[in-house]
Amino acid sequence: MKILITGGRGFLGGWTVKSGEADRYILYGLKADLTDVSALRAEVKELQPDYVLHFGGVSHPATCEIDKDRAYQVNVKGTQNLVDATGWLGKPVRIIFASTAQVYEKPNVDEVKNGLCLTETRKISPQNYYAYTKHEAEQVLKIAQSSKLLVTVLRLFNVSHKSQSTKFVLPYIYHSLKKYKAGEISSIRIGNLNVYRDFSSIYDFEEILWSLINRTQIQYYDCYNLCSGQPRKVFDLAMILAKRLEVVDPVFEVDEARIRPGDPISISGDPSKLNLFLNRNLPPTTDEEFIERFLK
Predict the structure, then answer these.
(1) What are the pLDDT digits (tens) for 158-172?
(2) pTM for the model
(3) For the chain, what is the radius of gyration of the CA atoms?
């Protein structure tokens, strides 16, 4: 089994390479730029992959907003280039694509009050330009799917670990607490801590990924939420992190620039479809247990 991975040096890709090698899989990191058609086609043709794990792209919403053209060229046209390159192989190839739950319409106030968990049938209404490019890439893959190109889309909610970029909320809080403890900063500037978000561990992601790779009964195209189904309050997670790092009474200061206007108080996903497909039946976990895996 030959596995090609895009974004092998990124957060998801780096962890996937490490976990795959530990289980004696051989993964090949894509060297060509996704926007370089000829180099991409030559590399894919030489490798002849059976699987493509497509995790490469511009992955942070704010970065996409700053350079929309670059985000579109990499996330959308890069995906099309990858599809075209695999199409020249003349053999079945399976692509697993990391998308985002931000493609869904935000839950309104009443839906939040009623404890809505977003399912895969939720209306598509990308919440930002990053999500727009991810959904466009999904459409590229959906159009291309066939008996020769089997596509699995994973809509990620919040896959997190302390090793992730500080552009993301929990790693930012973790590293800021360490700076606060060391006396490097007098307060931690943060957005709204009184929100609930659906977090998964990077270990959950890897377990699900390899389970999917080892499944032989799959559709030409399918889409799954990758989430826990458990909304967690960000403030509570921050205080558990503070306790683990032995930080006493951390000072959090509201930074208006970090608050997204119209952000719902709670966003949670429904993992039922993926759990059913993989025969997963996991018990709920506590915030402390999640943080333990975040720090592991």
Answers:
(1) 999 999 999 999 999
(2) 0.95
(3) 19
